[in-house]
Structure formats: structure tokens, C-alpha cells
Amino acid sequence: MPIRLAHRDDLTNLQQIERAAGEAFRTIGMPEVADDEPFSIEELLAYQGRTWVYERDGEAVAYLLIDLVDSLFHIEQVTVHPRAARQGIGRALIEHVYAQAPQQKLTLTTFEQVPWNAPYYRRLNFETFASPGPELQQVRRREAEHGLDRWPRLCMIRTH
Fold this sequence. Notes:
The protein is α+β, with helices and mostly antiparallel strands. The chain has one domain (3-158): Gcn5-related N-acetyltransferase (GNAT) (Aminopeptidase, 3-Layer(aba) Sandwich), CATH 3.40.630.30. It has 6 helices and 7 strands; from the N terminus they run E-H-H-H-E-E-E-H-E-H-E-H-E. It has helices at 11-26, 31-35, 41-45, 89-98, 118-123, 134-145; strands at residues 3-5, 51-56, 59-69, 72-80, 106-111, 126-128, 153-158. The protein has a 7-stranded mixed beta sheet. Strand 4, helix 4 (89-98) and strand 5 form a beta-alpha-beta unit. The model has no long low-confidence stretch (mean pLDDT 96).
């Protein structure tokens, strides 16, 4: 199976995937998002056991990070390298993690109007989450402090 837990040897590649995928934000007038640095190696190490990669030809081409927020799996990050985009890889990672999610629920926060964000997640059975718990509200506050609220954002949940 091409999905596996990430190894320490993957981490530099995950940063490269993030940088490459971030460039798409530049094309839609969000250069600040494109310029945002990926997680450091130390930050990625903190996700050990909670980072899945999609591997092709012996190399990770996408990854997904999970946090536990309000006792639910929360997608902190899902990123696909542009050369592997639009091939169902992000969906495969999300389905893989959803199958393991407590209570068969999965949350995330995302940009409302970016085509490969909220509209994409809606196609994957995520819905706007109008009543996020206290920890997810804290996630949103941190995102706002980081400047992400410059563009409309929302919380989403998948329950089926």
C-alpha cells in the first residue's frame, strides 16, 4: 500500500512538498500563504506516529498530519506535491485516516474560497462545523493570530 507512517528520513522531503504546493497560493493572490515556511524538522518530529505519507516510486509525494482536538482526529495539514496533484492522493490519505478516526469523525480548518480547500473537502463529505469545541476554537484563534483570517476561513467536520 502506498500509504504509510512517515519516517524521520521523510521530513526534509515533506518540507519540500509543502513549499512546492504552497506556490499555488501565489497564483490566486495569496503570496503570504505561499511564503509561509513549512514546519521545522523539530515540529514535524513532534508529529511522529501522526504523520502519514503517500509514497510513489520510493518517495513521499504527499503527507497528512493529525492532531487530537476535542477528542477527535483533526487534520492539521494535508499536502500533495503539484506533480502528484489531481490523482486522488489527497483523498486516499484522508480516507485512510478517516477509517482510523475515533467516533468516525474528522475535523479541519480551511480557506472557504480556495478551490482546493473548502470546495474540495465538501466533495469528500466534510460539512461546515458551526459549533466547534473549545480546543478547535483555540486552533482558530491561533490561525487568526498567524494572520490567516485575512481570507475567509471555516471549520469543517466529516461524520460519514
